[in-house]
């Protein structure tokens, strides 16, 4: 599959688009408005030095070639006109994802395979909205995809195995380690392990048990982990945990979401990709 369309150009969507283009794919980056898409140029400039820092084979020439393989569009039919694969990375809200896939399914070519990058929702929650559930599955990326290069491939009961195989091959072609799940699992493997850690840290912070820096330092020192939970939140970005927890059944997680909005999101502290989150980044 050579032609990729990415729906949503936020932190993860833009990373997926750039990683695919860096590995030779032709990419269309779609978002709702041209105003949103004008921010992509700055996003590419942010990613280039990270590739140079982390990947031995990265060169300025290869990075420029990657940018040249990406075009942007706010016209969904245009963005999908020749897509072999669509990867959706819109906000982690079921209604938004289902609406997005209903529109995509109505205009995508017959050949197109559909994949969601949802962190928490199951493919079976969304598949029927696309109109072609047999071609629908999840391909989940970890943040900083060029470095944390896992691609979790998870179908639902109605996914035709040939399309799961094709998506796994695509993941490998763009530098991912394709991880095949045998069945649907909320949170896949990575987030099934990670979310309990982040939840525990969030509750300690919401209860004012300790400052986030102390919580991070405790985790790093005690386990040898390179990142504390709030450093991980900065990598993920503030919007995803806010969207997940704003209407949580757990009052402490709703309180944590309120803290994120009041003290961070409303102040433009959206995470590492924007230069500031819990921590400030140069």
Which properties best describe this structure?
282 residues; alpha/beta; Rossmann fold; N-(1-d-carboxylethyl)-l-norvaline Dehydrogenase, domain 2; 2 domains; 8-stranded mixed sheet; 13 helices; 8 strands
In short:
Pathway: Lipid metabolism; butanoate metabolism. The chain has 282 residues and is α/β, with parallel strands linked by helices.
Tell me the number of helical segments per DSSP (H or I, 4 or more residues long).
13
CATH names the topology of the largest domain as: Rossmann fold
Strand fraction equals 5-15%
Give the integer mean of the pLDDT values: 96
- What is the domain tally? 2
User: Mind telling me the CATH class of the largest domain?
Assistant: Alpha Beta
Shape: globular
Placed side by side, the strands forming the largest sheet appear as 3-2-1-4-5-6-7-8
Helix content: 40-55%
- CATH-assigned homologous superfamily of the largest domain: NAD(P)-binding Rossmann-like Domain
Rg from alpha-carbon coordinates: 19 Å
Q: Tell me about the biggest sheet?
A: 8 strands, mixed
Q: What gap, in angstroms, lies between the N and C termini?
A: 37 Å
Poorly predicted runs are: none
Q: What are the secondary-structure elements, in order, as H or E? A: EHEHHHEHEHEHEEHEHHHHH
How many individual β-strands?
Answer: 8
In the CATH hierarchy, the architecture of the largest domain is: 3-Layer(aba) Sandwich
Structural class: alpha/beta
